[in-house]
Amino acid sequence: METTLDQVRQAGVFSTVRRSVRMTVGQKRVWATRWSELGRTQEDLPPGAVDLAAWFGREAPTVFEIGSGMGEGTAQLAVATPDVNHLAAEVYPAGLGQLMLWVEKYDLTNVRLLQGDALDFLRDHLPPESLDGVRIYFPDPWPKKRHHKRRLVTGPFVRLVASRLRPGGTLHLATDWADYAERMLEICTAEPSLANQYDGWAPRPEWRPVTKFEARAQAEGRDCRDLLFTKRSGS
Q1: What are phi and psi of 105, to 5 degrees?
Q2: Catalytic residue list contains 140
Q3: For position 2, what pLDDT does the model report?
C-alpha cells in the first residue's frame, strides 16, 4: 500500500524546520550565479517525477541526503565518490549556499540541491525504486519527550523511504541521541522490506565525514550510532 504524506506527517512531522535566511556575501553570490544550474526549489518543481539523469547530465547511482546542513560532509562524500550522483535536500538557504561554495571549490559536477521539504520530494517527485541510497545524518533529535512525535524517523517515513530504494539500496542513519537511536533501530527492523546489514549497530564507517554535530556530541561525551539497512530483493 502506498504511504500517504498525511501518514508520514502525522503529529506534524517534517523533514526539516525553516530557519533564518541570512546569508554571507559569498553564499549570496553563488546563489545568484549557480542556483539555476544546481538547485531546485520545492515550489518550482513541476508535477510528477523529476528526471534525475537529465538533471545530473548522466545516468549514475543516486544517493539522496535529507538535511545536508552546511554541506561540507556532502561535498567530501561527492569528492570521494565521483561515480555517484549526490542529491542534497535542505530548507536552510545559507546551508545550500555554503554547499554550492564547496561545489565550486572542488569543481564538483555530481551534486544537485533541493530547497524544500524532503518528504514532499520523496512522495511527489521520486518514483518507486529510483534511489540507490538515502542518508540521514544527525536529524533534529527533539530531545524533550513531549516533542518526540516531531521526530523525522517514524514507521510511515521509513516505509516511504524504502519504497524509493532500489533492491540492494541502503538507508544510512546516524544520531548521537541514545533513545532516538534505539527507536530508529526498532522502526527500521520492523520494516519488512529492509534488512539490517549488522546485528544491531553498524561500525562507524571510516568514509562518513565527521560533521559539526558529531564533533559536538563527542566533546559532550555522547556516543554516536550508525545504522545501515538494505532494501530486500523482491520487496
Answers
A1: -60, -45
A2: yes
A3: 39
